[in-house]
Design brief:
single chain; TIM Barrel; binds pyridoxal-5'-phosphate
C-alpha cells in the first residue's frame, strides 16, 4: 500500500499515544504563534475507523470528534454518545439536503454549509427540530470543481445571506486546500475572509499541515491519520 509521507504514523497504532503527541504539537504551535493556550480545538476525525478506535480516544479523555459521512456517523456515534458524556460531534464532509434531518439529530457542529439551498434546508430543520448546530461555511479556496464550498468571490455575500436571511448560527469558515499546493496561502485567505466578516472560528489544517494552520489562525484543526493511523485511500471532498 502506498503510504503518504509527511504524516507521523506508527505502524502499530497507539491511539492514546498519538493523541497526546498531536495535542503536544498543537500546544507548541499555539505557543509559537503567541496565541492563548486552549485557543485551538482538536477535532479527531474518526471516519472509516471502527467504533473501537473512537472508543480508545474517548477512554483517553478526548471528546471532540468528526465524521465526513452522515450515515457512518449514524452507524457509529449514537451508542458512543449515550455512553460517554460531553461528546461534541462535527460533520466535516458534504451534506445532502435529504440527510439534513438525520444530520441535525446527531451532529453538534456542521463544517460544510456551502450553498443557499442547503443553508435554507438547515434553517428549516433547526426551526422544526430545535436542534441548533454551530455552522461553518465551507469555502472552496482552491476553486476545485470536485470539492464542495462556496467560491471565494461569492463568500461574503453567502455568509451575509446565511446570517441575515436564514438566521443560521454561523461560527466561522472552513477550507480544505488543494493537495498539491502550499496550504499557507489558502489558510491566510480563509483567515482574512473570517476576519472581515467578523467571524471568530476558522476550521483548517489536517494531519500534514495543522501546525501551519495554527500559525495562520486556525481555531479548529481536523486531524485523522496522525491519531487513528492510515485509512484506505478515499477522496476528500
Ligand atoms: C479526512 C478529513 C480530515 C482528516 O485528514 P487527515 O489527513 O487524515 O488528518 C480533515 N478534514 C476533512 C474534511 C476530512 O475529510
Amino acid at each position: 500500500m502506498a503510504i503518504k509521507v509527511t504524516v507521523k504514523v506508527t505502524t502499530q497504532t497507539n491511539i492514546s499515544e498519538n493523541l497526546s503527541a498531536v495535542t503536544k504539537d498543537i500546544e507548541a504551535a499555539v505557543a509559537d504563534a503567541s496565541r492563548p493556550a486552549g485557543s485551538v480545538t482538536l477535532v479527531a476525525i474518526s471516519k472509516t475507523h471502527p467504533a473501537a478506535a473512537a472508543r480508545a480516544a474517548l477512554d483517553a479523555g478526548h471528546r471532540v470528534f468528526g465524521e465526513n459521512r452522515v450515515q457512518e456517523g449514524l452507524d457509529k456515534w449514537p451508542d458512543l454518545k449515550a455512553e460517554y458524556s460531553g461528546v461534541a460531534l462535527h460533520l466535516v464532509g458534504s451534506l445532502q439536503r435529504n440527510k439534513v434531518n438525520h444530520a441535525l439529530g446527531l451532529f453538534d457542529v456542521i463544517h460544510t454549509i456551502d450553498r443557499p439551498k442547503l443553508a435554507r434546508a438547515v434553517a428549516v430543520e433547526i426551526d422544526k427540530s430545535g436542534h441548533r448546530p454551530q455552522c461553518f461555511i465551507q469555502v472552496n479556496t482552491g476553486e476545485e470543481p470536485q470539492k464542495g464550498g462556496v467560491l471565494p468571490a461569492d463568500a461574503d455575500a453567502f455568509i451575509g445571506q446565511c446570517r441575515d436571511e436564514f438566521n443560521l448560527p454561523v461560527a466561522g469558515l472552513m477550507c480544505i486546500p488543494p493537495n498539491d499546493e502550499e496550504p499557507s496561502l489558502h489558510f491566510a485567505l480563509l483567515r482574512e475572509m473570517a476576519k472581515r466578516n467578523g467571524l471568530e472560528s476558522v476550521s483548517m489544517g489536517m494531519s500534514g499541515d495543522f501546525e501551519t494552520a495554527i500559525r495562520f489562525g486556525a481555531t479548529h484543526v481536523r486531524v485523522g491519520t496522525a491519531i487513528f493511523g492510515q485509512r484506505p485511500p478515499v477522496k476528500v471532498t
